[in-house]
Amino acid sequence: MSSEGDTRVVMLNPGTTLGQALKYVGLVMTGGEGKARIAGGEVRVNGAVESHRGRRLVNGDEVALGETSFRVSVWNREDTSRSPG
Question: Which of 39, 46, 75, 80 has its CA 20 to 30 Å from the CA of residue 11?
Fold first, then answer.
């Protein structure tokens, strides 16, 4: 995993799954590719291999695929100043 200093933070909507997040950040091109990489044990969440693509990500989760990782920040719908777009 990357060190704390170079892990990018990605804003996600509440309830975003691991499979959706991998696609959103561009680590996989399709849902099928994400499913295969997760099933193949290539994806880690908080340092542990994650085998459930439906896992809901929460604030502070760190997701890694290979040498690329990102930290999750869940967008609070009540705070419109931080809307992800």
Answer: 39
Domain CATH for 24: 3.10.290.10
48-49 vs 43-45, strand pairing mode? antiparallel
Full domain range(s) for residue 52: 4-78
- Structure-derived torsion over alpha carbons of residues 77, 80, 84, 85, reported in degrees to the nearest 10: 120
Give the integer Cα–Cα distance in Å for 79 and 71: 19
Instruction: Note the pTM of the prediction, 2 decimals.
Output: 0.81
Question: What percent of the chain clears pLDDT 70, i.e. is strictly above it?
Answer: 82
What CA–CA distance (Å, rounded) separates 62 from 9?
9
